[in-house]
Amino acid sequence: MSEALALHPDQLFPAEERTRGIARDLYDSVRDLPIVSPHGHTDPVWFASNDPFANAAELLLTPDHYLLRMLYSQGVPLDRLGVATVDGKTASDPREAWRCFAEHYYLFRGTPSRLWLDWIFAEIFRLEIRLSAETADLYFDRIDAALQTPEFRPRALFDRFNIEVLATTESPLDTLEHHRAIRESGWDGRVITAYRPDPVVDPDLPGFSDNLRRFGEMTGEDVSNFGGYLRAHEKRRAAFREAGATSTDHGHPTPFTADLSRPEAESLYSTILGGDFSAQDAELLRGQMLTEMARMSLDDGMVMQIHPGAHRSHNPWLLREYGRDKGADIPMPTEYVRNLKALLDRFGNEARLTIILFTLDETTYSRELAPLAGHYPALRLGPPWWFHDSPEGMQRFREQATETAGFYNTAGFVDDTRAFLSIPARHDVARRMDCAFLARLVAEHRLDEDEAFEVARQLAYDFVKQAYAL
Questions:
Q1: How many Cβ atoms are within 10 Å of 352's Cβ, its own excluded?
Q2: Most exposed of 11, 322, 373, 414 (fewest Cβ within 10 Å)?
């Protein structure tokens, strides 16, 4: 029989008794602070319609690429997990998909996914026994019954989680109708958007030409020339600002930036539109547009986020059969010092500009990112992201970045998730790990206790509001 499911109050705190006691006191001071979630991929339609979530599998399993990649790596076909193929076929119904997941739940021992899910099961659904093949139906039925109640509607959960603000992420081609519906509904939950221009910036993405055509139609600008293309971005950014956006997000393969003259940029853009362009041309346009976006941010106050270094859809068969975001993205080595030079030469000294840098290449923390953010007024370090959003990843980040960038050149915690119910779990892990790090500094007489309490609050709440202009 499965063991009881219980979350230990000292989870993730240091083993040494005195340091653990300091961490516990620090955590008690921040555990109930409001959640600020300034960047993620939750669906705004949830909060616009406030309809019930469907079932355990569709809410917690099939959208979560952390889960899919682990299960696929162990030979579990995605159709057994209820994941639809690109032509819309689904081989397994939600209950059978959940049973398959429960049967393989042991695979997540020691992973952050296990931490988040156990928190959700225990804290949100009040389940008291561990998920396994034997308890799969109990879990499915208990979660399904809860989801039919008013207390588990999206807006009620938003309030229960004590979320102060949550940002989704939309393409420039999005009509933002769901955000408009949220604003007009009378609900006081703050759900805003963020501007992700990749579909009309990256020539290597499928459908780029059609995306540009729609971009021009939406904005009424002639995007067949570079000037009209830039004005189209400015118009859509203004529309996003009206929908509450305070930030832009750029998921480029690399952080390469360029600062071309206007004639050079116009010539490059014409080459891209002609369709006969090289990989270097595509990279040059992406790099130029990062610098153009920084220029626009100085005008409209939007914070920039750069999320580079992911080889998207590394598995071509999986991409063909099931589409994007199914767990086949892989981190790549990423260089920042030379790649960001063009943008920083032009805008790095602007204290009015905030550029938040993320990485999937941890080797750059102490060698590149912390020294850069520890010098340039425009730069802040984003928290451990994606593959490194884990207790170990958070500890490595603090140890490698703090000595050069300090605490005050970092941007607080950003959960960056599609999984709505995991948001409070992720913030809880981050708060525990930061308190554990601060407790060690206090125990080693490197930080006074009153300072640690101040920094704990800043890391949990203040820094992220400041960095994202919220």
A1: 10
A2: 11
